[in-house]
Every structure is written in structure tokens, then in C-alpha cells.
Amino acid sequence: MSAKVYTTLVIGAGFTGLGTAIKLREAGIEDLVILERADRVGGTWRDATYPGAACDIPSQLYSFSFAKNPGWSRTYSPSAEIHAHITELAERFDLVKDIRFNTEVTKMRFDKREARWEVSAGRRTFHARTVVVASGPLSDASLPKIRGIDDFEGARILSARWDNDYDFAGKSVAVIGTGASAVQIIPELVKVAGSVKVFQRTPGWVMPRVDLVTPEAVKQVFERLPIAQQAARTALFVAHEAAATGLVWNTPITSVIQQAGKLHIRMTVKDKWLRRQLTPDFRAGCKRMLMSSDYYPALQAENCKLITWPIAKITPRGLQTCDALQHEVDAIVFATGYDVHLDGPPYPITGLDGQVLGEEWSGHPQAYKSASAHGYPNLFFTCGPNSGPGHNSLLVYVQGQIDYAVAGIRTIVEQDLRWLDVKKDVQDAYNASIQRRLRSTTWMSGCSSWYLTADGFNASMYPGFATQYLRQMQDFRIRDYEVASNAAVRLWNIPRDLAAV
Amino acid sequence: MAMDMDEMLQKIKDRQWALADIDWDAPGVETISEDFKPKLKAFMADLCWIENVGARGFAAMAKKAPTPTIAEIYRYFHAEEQRHANAELALMKRWGMLEGDEIPEPSVNIRMAIEWLDTYADDMPLSVLGTVIPMLEVALDGALLKFLLEEVHDPVCHQVFEKINNDESRHIAVDFEVLDLIGHARARKLAIDFVSNVASPGLIIGALMYVPLLNRMRNNLVEMGLEPEKLYAAMNRFEKLGRRGEFTHRVPLFQVLRVHSKMVVNSEHPYHLLANSMVKLSEYYPKALFRPIPTWFKELTYEPVTTGVKKGMNAA
Questions:
Q1: Least Cα separation, residue A310 to chain B (angstroms)
Q2: Is A152:A313 a contact under the CB 8 Å cutoff?
Q3: How far is A449 from chain B (nearest CA, A)?
Q4: A73 and A184, same domain (yes or no)
Q5: Do both A402 and A365 map to the same domain?
Q6: Using an 8 Å Cβ cutoff, are B239 and B258 in contact?
Q7: Residue among B18, B76, B308 minimizing CB distance to A324
Q8: Of B122, B295, B309, the CB nearest to A197
Q9: B187-199 tens-digit pLDDT
Q10: CATH number of the domain that residue A59 is part of
């Protein structure tokens, strides 16, 4: 009996994977399977359960335009509500039946002869003509490499894998890191813990976050008049697009944004030295912008202290800083972010001629329009190289990536192609242009961030407006691809692996 | 050969130590005579605050560092100077010089240095900070610490200063390497940098602060029985180390400090009339004019281990 060959296999049942499945169905591609390593849908938002977890882009924009949620409770909805929305999407679009839970992809290989992907997940193997990688860039997290970390006898808690059973009440807590999750966690910890010491390496630009409860009347209007919700979404989109002029490109507007950040510090932080400690010395936008109105007040609470001395090591009972002090704590919260896979998914992907993606992408990952990589046919990436926004909603970009993948898959199905493989010269020209355009961006203005590889190569961000990105993603051009046709195989009876034209 | 700064940073990370590594109750306290204590207390207090002032200097330099690695090294040096100050405070506590939670009062010249640092340091170019800091480090390392080790026979003090000296030798090595780097700049840039800064209120006030601060330390040492030659030998080392660098001599402020140190080491030089008058004058500086002590100055502590959060003086 021959194995089932799906038309499309989607890896990941988070926002992106489910969105892909919805759009594939809409395009008439019903024969799909979604592999999910966990036992529930939700991706990053299923795992982000730390106190204060919420999106830092307004919820109206942090959702798909084709599956809006009129009922967002706040401007910036909390993690649980986002997760509930994703779960609701899976149910509303009847996607659960296509999801294989507890199925973690371990490797995948393109079978040139059969023109299909062979995807291994433990002992199981799936076959599919096309694959969409929707496992997300922020799905893995691990403890940072700090001297002595294994010696610590207290609780070690990762922000991305929160231990909800640990009771922080009255405890002495150290928080390492002051990034996007830390600015959300710290104000919540300060409310319950006995003491909170925040260990900062580099301060980020923090902008106030106006987080309002959505009035019932507004929800009703959005429910009954989808056009009103779309108008609100468009207004937010345009406002965020405007911010690109200062956050994406290094311009005088960037300086204006920095002044706003400094004013935020000036108005909320009393002590001059603390203000100095909290003032970043890199261009706004170079690292991810942080959104919080309660972070600075929390740092100044009686039971909280910001420590900027470098950490010498972690000891069995706490941390030792380079000013020679040992800080005894009950728990250490590692708000150190995610393992960003700039060199591709964490499982090996073997391409058309036996090449391995991780090796090719090691150092300088490259793809065409962030979605296709030469030598890996019929494979579509979401959140691929140079696809990240610095100023707008990730989901807006993801929606563009989904549209692109669906267009490619439709082409393969409708034209009965064995494969589509992006041309090397097209991919190279695209990347040369991207790298040229990146030079004038804030990301390349001299700070070190997770956007860049160790040698300073930017393989993560898209240098432009979201509008530009969406326009390129809506333009799927078959001429950019080498095409292998089933018709050619049948007509001329040529060997299948030579069928590329 | 140019120093490998990445290697140096790794070495710095590998050589960290803590107050808790030292047995502060070990025998040896009895070696400090009661007669010597008041003088030693004043000396240690100044030393400890000067380390703290040096720490603030490195914090300013971290913002001007020519490379991210050097910025990171300065970030460590900032903490290490603070560590030295904490260790010196812990020695004072061990010797019974501090009552309860007492933290010694900074002298008027130290208060002036604090005010200067808080107001001007962050705006000073690297060529200024990168020249003044090595001078202070050499003077401290060469004279003050050596003096202490000769006069004080407490083994814990020797243990502490061995660690401090090891740190300081790395600081001095990096300081002079960076000074040489600064000297590598175009002569035109060095000249413009110098002229524009000499004319700045920051550097003029800085000099007015620096001259009496240095002479007060010198006078205190001489009063305590240190042969001034030892201080002079230390200050001459500034010139010697600077001469080793290929480009250091091109830094105008290095030349100014070199000439200045020659005046300082010559006790017959009329310079001392001026400097000592400034020390005296500074005693009359109205304390009410001082702004509140910045919070970075209140971070010193002699406690090796801290739990919970304390804010304000003697915080940890």
C-alpha cells in the first residue's frame, strides 16, 4: 500500500499555521495536514503564560484581516485572550481534524524522484507535495549560558516556559534581562514578590503603552459593522506605517522618537543616576522597541532595584555581580527571550540535491521574498529570512507570506507541476538588493541585537514599509522559478529527476 | 604588539572575585595600632571614595569606547572599581573604623570630584577621560596601594590588595593601550579635540577640582610618613608607560599631564604654593552649595552578601 501523499503539510498550529490552513482551504486545497509538537494549538501564545504576557502591537492589528476578532477586551490583549482567539479560529474553521498533535518534526527531505517532501516526526513519516514551515521564529527557548547556572539551588524560571505552580509571594526574586517579556513580567512580580532585583545589561527604548479596556459598545459596533472594525484596523496600520520612517530607517524622525523615549524616562523616573542607567545609547529601532507604562514605576517600587553591574556568575544561592557582592535569591527569572533560529528551523531540511538548509544558512541565511530558498522546491517559509517588521504587526507580514505560499501551492496543483524551485540568480539579485537597502536602516546603526548574526549580518528584518512587503508577496511570479512539470514526464517519458525546465 | 581586547575581556571575566571569598574575621586586626587608626581611617576613606570616583569615570568612558569590546571592558572596570571601594570599606569595617552602618564622609575635594563627574563626565571626549583615568590609576596603584602594603601588616589587607592590584594591572594595561589608540587619530582631530576641550568649562572646572584633590592626597600621605619619592616614582610611571606606546605622545592632554606630574613631583616647585592654597581654599567652600550626593555614590557597601532590596546609603 503506498503512503498517503498530502497536497500540503503545514508545520505548526500557531497563528501562522492555522492561518495558512484557512487560506489553503479557501483556495480549494482541502488535502492538508498540520503537524503540531504540543497537544494544543496556539504556538508562542500557548506557551507565553508569564504574568503580564500580552501583545505589544494593538490587538486590532495583531490578528488576521480574514479572521478578525470583534471582541478584543483591551487595546493590547493579554496572552490568554490571544490564545483563546487562536483556539476559536481552529474550531470556527474546523481545522482540528487536520491537526496531528504531539507530532514534532525531526527532519525532512525532498524526494526528487517522487517530487515530494518526506517529513519525519519521531517514528512517523508524512509525505506531501508541498510544505509550509509555520513553526515560528520564537518557538524555542533555553537557559542562557551564564557561568554557574547549573549550581543554583533555587527555582530557575524561563519567561518563555513559565512555571505557573511556583508561588512568588514574599520571595526574593532576581530577573535577568530587560527586554520585551521582562518589561511585562517585572511590574507583575513587584506586586507579589518580597523583593525583585532586576539585572540589566543594556537598557531598551521604552514607550508608554496606552492600554484601554474596549467598551462593550465598541465591541458591538465591530460585531455588527465589520466595516467599522476594518476602518479601525486600517487607521492603526497607517499609523504604524508612519512610524517606519523613524524605526526602520535611521532618520531625523528616529531622533524625534528617541526624544519621546527620553521624555518618558524624564517624566516617570525621579533619580538622575537611574535615568542614566535606563537611557539607551543606541538608535531607537535598532533593537526591538519596548512598550510599557508600568515598567519604570515598578523599578522604583520600594521592593525593586535595578542592578547594572555585570553578572560574574550564578552561585548556589543567587548571583554574584562584578562589584563583589553576592545577591541571595529564592528564584531567578530568565527573561532572556527566545532561541531565534536565524539559520532556519531547528530540524534538518535536505533539499533537491542532498544539500542541508542549516548548513547553507549558517551565518548568512537567504531566501527569495523570505519565502522560497533555491534548492528546496515546493517549500514555503513563513517568518523566513528578512521578513521581520520593526514597526508593524508581525501578523500583517505573516498574512502576506501565507498569500504567497498559497499562490505557489495553487500554481503547483493547477499546473500539475512536479516542483517549483526559485532560480538562484533571482534569489541572489533579491538578496543583494535587500542587503543594499538594509544599510540605511536603524538595525544596522551599530547596536548588537538578535536581529543580526554573530558577524553582524542582517538576515531577519525587511527594510521597508509593510505595504511594500505585502505588495511583493502578492506578486507570485512563476518566471522566478525553475519548473519541473509532470506533463513533461508523461509526454516525453523522460526520467523524472531530469524534468526541470 | 596590539593587545587582543577579546582575550583581555575573557581574562577579566575569568578573574572575578567577591567579598565573600575573603575571611573578614581572620586574625590580623591586632596589627593595626590604635594610634595609627585615625590617620588610616582618613586615608582609607579617601582611597575608597577615589575608587568610587574612578568607577564613575569608567561608566562615562564606556559610552565613548571606540569598540563594543572596549565598551564591555569598561563596563567591567566600572564594576571592579566599585568592588575595590567595597573591599576597602570592608577592611575599614574589619578594623573597627565604622560605627554601626556608618559610611565615611567624603572630603570636600571628593565632593567636588563627584559634582564634576556627575555634571561633565558623560560629555567629555574619550581623549580627555582616557588620559586622566590612567593618571589616577597609576598614582593609586603605584603609591597609595604600595604605601598601604608597607605600613599595614594585616594579612587580610595584603590578601585584598593582592586581588585589587591584579585587577589594577589589567586596568592600566588597557588604559595605556587605549591611550595609544587615541594617539593614533589624525593630528588635526587631536588638536581640535584638545583646543575645544581646554576652552570648555568642563575641563577648566575639572582642573580646578583635580589639582587640590591630588595635592590633598599627597599631603595626607606625607603626613602619614610616606616618602614623597614613592608617590613621585608612581607619577613618573605615567610618563614611562605612556612613552612605551607608539602614538601616546601625540595626545596633547598626555603631554599636559606629564608636565603637570613633573611639577607635582618637584616639592620645590612653586606649583605647590598654588596647589596647597587651593587645598586650603577648598576647605572654605560652602557645603550648602553642593548638590545632593548622587545615588551612584550611595551604592557602596561592606556587606559581602545581600538579601532583599535596600535603597539609599549603604545599599545593596
A1: 7
A2: no
A3: 13
A4: no
A5: yes
A6: yes
A7: B18
A8: B309
A9: 777 777 777 666 6
A10: 3.50.50.60
In this prediction the ipTM stands at 0.89
Same domain? For A197 and A325 the reply is: yes
Answer yes or no: is A218 within a domain: no
Q: Tell me which chain A residue has its CA closest to the CA of residue B295.
A: A273
Contacts of B18 in chain A (CB under 8 A): 312, 320, 324-326
**B309, A325: Cβ pair inside 8 Å?**
no
pLDDT for B316 equals 47
Q: By CA distance, what is B17's nearest residue in A?
A: A324
Give the residue, A64 or B205, on which the prediction is more confident: A64
pLDDT for the residue A499: 55
Q: What are A379-389's pLDDT values in tens digits?
A: 999 999 999 99
* Host H or E run for residue A313: strand A311-315
- Orientation of helix A15-26 relative to helix A79-92, angle to 10°: 20
User: Domain for residue A210, yes or no?
Assistant: no
Q: Report the number of distinct structural domains present in chain A.
A: 2
Kindly state whether A472 is in contact with chain B, defined as any CB-CB distance less than 8 angstroms: no
Q: Last residue of a domain, which of A334, A350, A384?
A: A334
B-chain residues within 8 Å CB-CB of A172? 307-308
Q: Is the pLDDT of residue A1 over 50?
A: no
Q: Does A323 reach chain B within 8 Å, measured CB to CB?
A: yes
Nearest-CB residue to B79 (from A147, A302, A309) = A309
Residue A207 neighbours by CB distance under 10 Å: 17
Say yes or no for a CB contact (<8 Å) between B296 and A273.
yes
Contacts of A360 (CB under 8 A, 6+ apart): A373, A375
CA distance B16 to chain A (A): 6
- E strand segments, A159-268: 172-176, 195-199, 206-207
Same domain, A190 and A174: yes
A256 & A175 share domain: yes
Q: State pTM to two decimals.
A: 0.91
Closest residue in B to A281 (Cα–Cα): B63
Which set of grid coordinates corresponds to residue B310?
535596600
Q: Which domain holds residue A412?
A: 5-140+340-499
- Chain A hits for B11, CB-CB cut-off 8 Å, are none
CA distance B20 to A152: 17
Task: Tell me the average pLDDT across A183-208.
Answer: 97
Domain final residue, candidates A288, A305, A334: A334
Give the bridge partners for A173, in sequence order.
A196, A331
Listed residue (A407, A443, A343) closest to A137, CA to CA: A343
Residues contacting A117, CB < 8 A, separation 6+: A9, A108, A109, A110, A111, A127, A128, A129, A130, A131, A378, A379
Task: Determine the Cα–Cα distance for residues B232 and B222; give it in Å rounded to an integer.
Answer: 12
Chain A nearest-CA residue for B79 = A323
Q: Answer yes or no: is A428 within a domain.
A: yes
Q: Is the pLDDT reported for residue A439 higher than 80?
A: yes
**What's the one-letter identity of residue A21?**
A
Mean pLDDT (chain B) is 85
Residue A464 and residue A419 share a domain: yes
Mean pLDDT of A95-107: 96
Question: Same structural domain for residues A411 and A359?
Answer: yes
Residues in chain A: 501
A274 in contact with chain B, both atoms CB, cutoff 8 A: yes
